[in-house]
Each structure stands twice: as structure tokens, then as C-alpha cells.
Fold this sequence. Notes:
This protein is of the alpha/beta class and about 725 residues long. It is built from 25 helices and 10 strands. The strands form 2 sheets. Strands 6-7-8-3-9-10 form a 6-stranded mixed β-sheet, with helices on both faces. A 4-stranded antiparallel β-sheet has the order 2-1-4-5, covered by helices on one side. The longest helix has about 40 residues, at about 485-525.
Amino acid sequence: MSIEGEPSADEARIPAREAAGDADGALEWHDVRYAVGRRGTTRRREILRGTSGIAHPGRLHGILGPSGSGKTTLLNILAGRVRERRGAELNGDVMHDGELLHASTSSREGEKRGGIIRGVQSVLKRLPLVGDALFSRRSSKRAQKPRVPVSYVEQDPKFFSNLTVRETLTLDSKLHGGDERDVDDVLRRLGLTACADTLVGGDTGGVAVRGVSGGERRRLAIACETLGLRIGKRNVDVRTSREGDDDRPLPGSSSSEVVPLPLPKSLSSSGGVVLADEPTTGLDAHQADKIVAKLKETAVEEHAVVVAVLHQPRSRSFERLDDLTLLTSGGKVAYCGPVKDALAYFANVGHVCPHHHNPAEFLIDLVAVDSDGSPEEEAADAERVAALVDAWESSFCLASEKKRKNTSRDEITSVTNAETRLNVCHTSSARRSRVGAARQFVLLVGRAWRQTRREAWVNAVRLVASAGLAAAFGGCNRDMGNGASSVKRRAAVLMQACINTSMLAVCRSLNGFPRERATVSREMHRSVGGYGAGPYFFSKLLVETPVDAVFPVVFGFVLNRMAGLNRNGRNWLLTTLALQTAAASTLGLSVGALSPSSEMALAIGPCVMVLSIMLGDETGAFAEIPASLTGVSHLSLIKWAFRGCLSSEFEGLKFDPLADAKRARAKGGAEKRTRGASGACPPTGEHVLSEMGLPTAGGARIAAKAQAKLVAANALLTYLVLKIKGA
Ligand SMILES: Nc1ncnc2c1ncn2[C@@H]1O[C@H](COP(=O)(O)OP(=O)(O)O)[C@@H](O)[C@H]1O
Ligand SMILES: [Mg+2]
């Protein structure tokens, strides 16, 4: 649509936004405002102050502006990632194809409700899990389920470190319902063929892995996030053709032929939305330009709306942009329109870009307020920026008014209605291309297994460490004999074994889970081609639990031999320690999932373990458990592990009252009074168990059942938290 008639002087200054085509499949944002509370005051800080703009499909739209001007915030709002929360106010609409992409999270909604309801809501929102479940989830659900596929390329994308580029893309392709051909295609398109079989690298696993270069990693991120657009569109094309075939069989056409039908305009034009936050930052100019070129190719080939925040693009990259939004310090718009008209527009308002000057740098300098300079300089900058914003706003209003006059309301309504139907069709088709939960589970088991298998040497170190630790424990407790003094020593060794295996497992979960979460969160939150919390979590458990169980088994085996523990109870000892590792790992996962940050998880996890040790100590060496806490002590995983170890050790064990004296004589010294030696020697292990109030038979089995329940409870809790909060 173009502005018709004789242009006035003002109109001549308006960049030809419509040159890009009509608003079919365009992403528009209207009067987006975002303000956050200032710490310690009731005043708010406005980050975006009414930004509006439009990005068209098939064109690369750049967002430029000085640091802190709100570029990332705007992009996150477009992606539906910014939620209204306590102290943050978000207003404005983001539209795609004339329909709301995500419902506005405006606080106006809240203001309409009564004071009491608002009060109750505000209290509930403060409770971490309840608040998330009741409120954030609704908004995040809106954010995660936009009407068209929305891909977000992060600034510092994280991947599973031990997978190759090809394996990473193959998994993504299969999650999108694609196959190997799509992978070869995307590898070629994004210039990743040379590094297809290189490990991606990073620190997702037990140790940081050297992998692909920064530029390749960014291109991989673009490949992963845009893979679904092509597969989704192809599925829609095939399905539409088939449906069309069924509905309208063409005379003379054979049933096996797929008759290409013309797609409805909106369907064929709507290639999704790709948002990229500073995809070039930290790269050299050549690599950065390659990224911009790939984004442009994606926009053209997928007919997608591609919006990228660019940090200091070189002139060549700037020229690759089709459209531009220039944000000023203070979060306002100084320009939004075709790049080719930008310099002419600014020249018209009195700012001519000098020759041989990078236009991107010129524009960013133009709208920056330098707060480091003198007050006069700052005031001059602010005045210049305010004038540019005024100039833009007046020309923008003029253009909007013109557009309004040219488009009758009836036309808009009928177009919108038709497009709504088509978009529903597109979206549901795209969604249907997602694979089911069972297939997701199988695919994710494969990834978890690869990731674990390639950490073989980390596991080898863990194995040696477990055996070494057991040898050290066993060495310090060698030759306990079977006299009265051995009762306490056996109990102490077993308690140490329980604490050691639990602590190792908890720390491993607390350390590993958060590192994986950034990747998993990115993948789970995709609008298309993601996966559910269930398939991810249970595939992880299925692969990692048996591998983790190997280490306590080795530990228990070496300890049993070195310390001369009861051989008859060895199998139950190993079972108890393996279950203890599973219980502690899942406890670490649930603490990690519930904690808002990895630092908090690392602070909370050890505290939970220390409480668990205190409540689980049957010997009373650490603390006497008050009667009122007996119920809570059943939740202590140390309690059940210790009980299981005690039962496996003492059931069927016989003691010799003279053994301590014989041992002392054999050592050639005077009989040393050792702890427990003065007490009466229990004839059998069953007597020891009964003195402790434990069952004299089958105690290890009872404890194992309780441990299994704790594993299940922790796993369920983690799953629910992941399901409600997301990874
Ligand atoms: N949730 C928030 N709370 C407080 N300040 C924020 C929040 N989000 C963004 N900001 C502030 O808003 C400004 C703009 O942030 P951002 O969008 O990241 O800028 P840009 O990407 O343009 O550099 C920054 O000064 C940042 O500190
Ligand atoms: Mg930023």
C-alpha cells in the first residue's frame, strides 16, 4: 500500500514503510511500554516508552540502538518472554497478521478487578510454586503458544556438549517431524557441513568440552531454531495438497498423484517469526557478517519475519538489512522503516551521515545520550534525541492517519476474519507436526545415552574415586574383629558410607542439572518442535540412574572386603547404597528444580542433607531426635539407608565376647579399653538390632521399599515442578 496523492512537505519525510508490501504475515507492535520498579522506592523506571513498528515476512529487520535502549527487552516482548510480574508493568500489543500474537499482559486487566481479589492474588503470587502455577503459567502459556511458530535465537546459545553438530540437528529435525534430508539441507544452507561431525562443546556435561567455534555455534543456533519453519511449512503444504485432493478429485488424475493446489495466500506467506538477540556479538566482523547473511537468507527462503538485534554491525551487514528500528536511549523509536530510506530521512531532519562513515555507527551515535560527558553535553544529546523522537512520532502519526483513511473498517474486519481462520489452520497444522510424547521420550533417551557414554572418562575417574575412597575408609577400619567394640565401629563405618554416597550424588545433581537446564529450557519452550517435561525428565532418569548406581556398588564392594564387613549381607548393602544414590540424586534434582537459581540450589541442597543426617542417625551420635520429629524423620533418606545398612550388616552376625581381648594380646600390648569394650558383648547381630529398635529380620527389605518410595516421591516432585514452572 502506498501513500497516494500529492505529498505535503511533511509527508515527503515519511519513509516508505509500505514499500515492503502490505501487512500480510507482518509482525506489528503497538505502543509497547514496559516499566520496572526501582529498588527501595515506589517509583518506576520506564524501559520502553511506547514503541511501535512493523516487520514484514521475507525481509530482515534489524533493531539498532545504544546500549541500554531496550533492544533486548523489546525483542523479548515480541517473543512473549516478558511477563507481567510484581513491580513490572507491561502494556501494548504484539500482532501477527492483524491478530494478537500473545495476549497483552497489560496491568489494566488487573486494575479492573476488585481490591480484595487483587490483594489475594498478590499474596498468592508471592508464594513461589503456587504463584507460578496459578498466575505465571497462564501468561507463560500464552507466551509459549503463539499463533505462528516463533523461534528465538539466543545471544549465547547452549547445547548438549557431547553431541556433534549433525546429531544435534538430527534430534531437532526428528522432534519437528523431519528426517535426515532436512538435516543435510540445513547443514548446507548454514555452511555447517565442514563441522557437521565435530562435537558442539560447552559445559553441559561433567567437564567442559572444546567444540565448534563461536560463529559456527551461532549458525547452529539459527539452524536449530529455523529448522522447524521449513519442515512445518512442508508438512502444511503436503497436508493441504492431500486434503485438497480428497475434497476435490480432479478428473483424469490418478489417485497416487499429489495435485499441487494453490495455497491460500496467508498460509503460503506465513513463514513464522524468527527473533535473534545480538547473534553477532563477540564474533569477528567476517563471522558476524556471515550470520547476518544467513539470517537474511532465512527470511527470504522461509518467507519468515526475521527480527535481529544487532550490535555495531559493519557497513556491509547494515546494507544487508531490509528494514530498521532505531531505538533511542530512554526506549523510544527514532525510526522504523526501510534501511534504504533511513539516511535520507535523517538528512531531511537535519542530520547528514558523513561520507565514508559506517551508517550504523552514525545512527547509533545520533540517538545516544552520553551520560559520561559534561552536563551541557548530556543536555544537548537529550535535546537532539527528543527532537528526533518528536520528528519520528509526528511522521508516524501522519502515516498511520493516511493508512486509516485508505483502508475502510469493513475491509479490515473481513480480511482479519478470513486470516484468523487461515491462521488457526496454519497453527494447528504446524502444531500437528510435533511428534508425540512417546517418540520424544525415545529420541531423548538416545541423546541422554550419547551424552553419558561420551563422558566415559569422567565416569572412569568417578569409578576410581569411589574405589579409592572405599579403600581409604576400609583401610582405617581394618581388622575390626567380632568383639563388642566392633558394634560401634561397624555402625560408624556404615553411617560414613551412607553420608558419603548421598553427598556425592546430591552434589553431582546440584552441579549438573542447572548446567543442562539452560539448553533444556530453550528447547522445551519452543513454540513448535519442543518436548515435554515428562519425556525429558524420565529419559534422563532412565539413562542416568543405572549409570550412577555403578559407583556406590563399587564403593560398597571394596568397603565390605577391606573393613571385613558381613559377607552374607553384602548384596543388601550394595542394593541399599545404590538406592541411596538414586534417592539422593532425585533429591538434588527436586531441590534444583524448586530453586530459582543454581546458587540457591547449591546453598539449600547441603542444608537439606545435613538435616537428613541429623534426623536419620539411629545411633544418636549426631543428635537425639525429639519425639515430635519422629514423623518428619521418616522423610530422611539417610535414615532408611542407615537402617538398610545396619540390617544387612547385623542380621546373622555372631559376636565373640573374648575377641577384643584376644586381638589386643595378639597385638602384643596391654588390653586397650576401647569404646564399647567395657559394655556387655551382644551374642548376635539380631540383639544389636533389637536394642536399636530395628526389625531383626527383613529390615533391609523394609528399608529398600522406603528408599524406593523416596526416589519416586522426589522424582514426581521434580517432574511436577518442571511441568508447572518449565525447565
Ligand atoms: N527486569 C528488569 N529489571 C530492571 N531493569 C531492567 C530489567 N530489564 C531490563 N532492564 C534495564 O533496562 C535497560 C534496557 O535493557 P536491555 O533491553 O537489555 O538493553 P539493550 O539490549 O538495549 O542493551 C537496561 O538498563 C537494563 O538494566
Ligand atoms: Mg541487549
